[in-house]
Amino acid sequence: MSTRVTGTAFITGSGSGIGQKTASTLAQNGISNLALLDINTVRLESTRNVLTARFPNVGVEILTADVRDEASVEAAVQKIVARFGGIEIAVHSAGISGKTPDSDENSLANWQKVIDTNQTGVWLCQRAVVRQMQKQEDRGGRLGRGAIVNLSSMFGISVPPPEMGLFPYTSAKHAVEAITKYAAKAHAAEGIRINAMCPNVVDTPMTHNAIKDGLFDKTLDQTPMGRCGTLEEIADSILYLVSPMSSYVTGASLVADGGRTA
Ligand SMILES: NC(=O)c1ccc[n+]([C@@H]2O[C@H](COP(=O)([O-])OP(=O)(O)OC[C@H]3O[C@@H](n4cnc5c(N)ncnc54)[C@H](O)[C@@H]3O)[C@@H](O)[C@H]2O)c1
């Protein structure tokens, strides 16, 4: 059994960081088409240009949309189906950190923005993709109808030092765990697998300044491997979760955290 992937992959937050790296990892491993969604058109266009130059045989569609907006998410899925015929893989990576001073000083506006993006956004995308996969043929064997990965975090299964100001973020990521496991149980018999990916800190535009300012020093001190994860390590873990290699894995949280939550 190989990590080769087939069909069309829909990746949110793919203008940057983990979503962007996942797109190129799937292209390297056999995907036919990539449907890339982000709120940032400039980042999406540059991602598409890099991918089409490197992987001329892979079809790439970019979709500027806000995962918080139900109609935009539904329209994006319809557009993908019209161009590529279906969705076999989905990776929901769009997210924000929403750092605030502490849980008591957190404003309702910030709380709402983080919950809407990191929690409701994942649920809206998951719901739209599941409905589409249900219409598709079950390919049987180790492929089924499709595989979905939701980006959680090691802070979806543990809590960060409070001074990091990630209270709404952590709350949303814990909810992503529930959204993932609940749907995994509901759709397992339909041949749709749904798992959560839980990385430790990775250097991306979301975290770069915070890493530089030492915000993650305590977390990294508590990490037995003593370092951040790399984009490649996280994208490879996602590749495992969406490939036939993980055909008996659903409702799981794959923790890639250098041992921090062990
Ligand atoms: N970087 C880390 O250390 C780390 C660790 C654990 C989990 N994660 C999770 O991984 C995912 C990706 O993070 P990243 O580090 O690659 O961040 P990133 O900032 O590099 O990329 C996130 C992308 O999401 C897009 N986005 C934000 N809000 C959106 C919206 N409303 N609609 C559509 N797109 C939107 C952004 O434009 C950006 O391109 C996030 O869910 C994050 O919480 C990251």
Commentary on this structure:
- This protein has 262 residues and is α/β, with parallel strands linked by helices.
- The chain has one domain: Rossmann fold (3-Layer(aba) Sandwich), CATH 3.40.50.720.
- The chain contains eight helices and seven strands, in the order βαβαβαβαβαβαααβ.
- It has a seven-stranded parallel sheet, with helices on both faces.
- Strand 2, helix 2 and strand 3 form a beta-alpha-beta unit.
- Helix 4 runs parallel beside helix 5.
- It is globular.
- The structure holds nicotinamide-adenine-dinucleotide.
- The site of nicotinamide-adenine-dinucleotide (NAD) has 29 residues, from helix 1 and helix 4.
Bound compounds: nicotinamide-adenine-dinucleotide
What is the terminal separation in angstroms? 29 Å
Instruction: Provide mean pLDDT, rounded.
Output: 96
**Topology-level CATH name:** Rossmann fold
Radius of gyration: 17 Å
CATH architecture assignment name: 3-Layer(aba) Sandwich
Strand content: 5-15%
CATH homologous superfamily identity = NAD(P)-binding Rossmann-like Domain
Top CATH class:
Alpha Beta
Q: Strand arrangement, largest sheet?
A: 3-2-1-4-5-6-7
From the helix content, strand content and strand pairing, which structural class follows?
alpha/beta
| Tally of helical segments | 8
Helix content: 40-55%
Our count of domains comes out at: 1
Shape: globular
Count of DSSP strands? 7
**Helix-strand string:** EHEHEHEHEHEHHHE
Question: For the report, how would you describe the main beta sheet?
Answer: 7 strands, parallel
Low-confidence stretches: none
GO molecular function, one term: oxidoreductase activity
Pfam families: adh_short_C2 (PF13561)
InterPro entries: NAD(P)-bd_dom_sf, SDR_fam
Protein name: Short chain dehydrogenase/ reductase
